[in-house]
From TrEMBL:
Residues 1-36 form the signal peptide. GO terms for cellular component: outer membrane. It holds the Pfam family 3D. Keywords: Signal. This is 3D domain-containing protein. The lineage of its organism: Bacteria, Bacillati, Bacillota, Clostridia, Monoglobales. One of its GO terms (molecular function) is hydrolase activity, hydrolyzing O-glycosyl compounds. SMART domains: G5. InterPro entries: 3D_dom, 3D_YorM, DUF348, G5_dom, Resuscitation_pf_RpfB, RlpA-like_sf. It comes from Monoglobus pectinilyticus. GO terms for biological process: peptidoglycan turnover. Residues 149-229 form the G5 domain.
Amino acid sequence: MFTRLMRKLHLSAKNCAAAALCSTFIVATCCSFAYATPSTVTICDGDNTPITVKTSDTSVGKVLAKQGISLNEGDETNVALNDTVSNNSVIQINRAIPVRVTINGVTNEYSTTKKLVSDVLADVGVEASDDEVTPRMTDVIEAGDEIIVNQEESQIVTVSERISYQTEEVENVNLAPGQRVVTREGSDGEREITYKIYYQDGAEISRERIGEIVLAEPVNEIVEYSPQEEFEVGKIPASRPTNYSRVETFTATAYDASYEDNGPWAGVTSTGMPMGYGVIAVDPTVIPYGTKMYIESADGKYIYGYAIAGDCGGAIKGKRVDLFYWSKAQCNEFGRRAVNIYFLD
């Protein structure tokens, strides 16, 4: 009996200890809730008036959610949404606005929280100088504004160009009159030229030559020729002369010494030279009087020969000449045709 009594007393002691422990937990928990103090938080949402709230929520995201505030794409906050708020915390929300940035005619749309033109360009990764940007770098932008950047774009281009060979003429007294012999064939050279090409609005505005490399030198042609025949008005040489400075194409007609072609000046030239084969009428503002020439048809089939500018005519203007012949039949046979005039040195 004594043993049973001791067991009952032992169980009562264990129950009392458990009850005491439970009571201590409940009191501690209640005290904890009783002493949780709400935090004062200020929310600055873009250009809206700041609001101050008291909240027992501990994260930035929960505080904003309780106030019905959501973030859009591109919006930024000064603290992370999972950061813990404390008393007198300030949550700053910078709202993104849509802007358009046009660079050399190409437009892209962006969302940015920046306000100054310079900051927007930096935000989207565009480098530009003040004189390339509209509006000014220091201007404030609003939603929907456009920033225009006009820059000179450049590109390095390397092209291959031909170097034309020249012809060297060498007199050879051993050749027959009028003979010409090519003793060395000519060949073109080649070079690479590097240009820096500048563009604006997609169009080339200028180019700068910045480098050149000769890949192959040209090889000049060598031509040996016989000594020139003496110039003589009206003479048809054995071959086309080589001592000329230039060649030009004219329209040629023909005239004779008749009254029909010359009127009261029949038989007399305007310079006083006697009329004769090889004395031709020119526009002296184009071919000065006294100019020595060699004339043949443009197709090479008709040779007039050596000539001198010694007359003029009312209808001979610009790049037109009148060739003298002794008879009307020769004039009619020649008619009108294109001729190449070699102006002699």
